[in-house]
Amino acid sequence: MTEIRYYKIGEDRFKISEDEVARRELRVAKVSDDVIQIQEEVHGIIALVGATSSVNIKKEELKELVKLVREEFGWDI
Predict the structure, then answer these.
(1) Where do the structural domains in the chain lie, given as residue ranges?
(2) In whole angstroms, what is the distance from residue 25 CA to residue 11 CA?
């Protein structure tokens, strides 16, 4: 099985209450020649599990994502 390598394209922290700060990290991996996976990890928030999933991407992170898939994954976008 091929090892999937993750590339970090974003990271930040934000205040969610008086005493708690959450940490967010955005990563991308090449799953196959025509599929990438974007993961957003948020630590510090108690969350409920739901049936939907979303990833928040900032403008600078999107620019980094496009650059990464061109240079590292060989995609012509």
Answers:
(1) 6-71
(2) 4
33/35 Cα distance (integer angstroms) = 6
What global pTM score does this model have?
0.69
**Which residue type, as a one-letter code, is found at position 2?**
T
pLDDT of the chain, 77 residues: tens digit per residue: 678 888 999 998 988 788 888 888 899 998 888 888 898 888 776 655 544 567 778 899 999 999 999 998 888 86
What the block records as the tokens of 35 is 């599929």
Q: With contact defined as beta carbons under 8 Å apart, do 56 and 40 qualify?
A: yes
The sheet that has 21-32: what strands, in order across it? 6-15, 21-32, 35-43
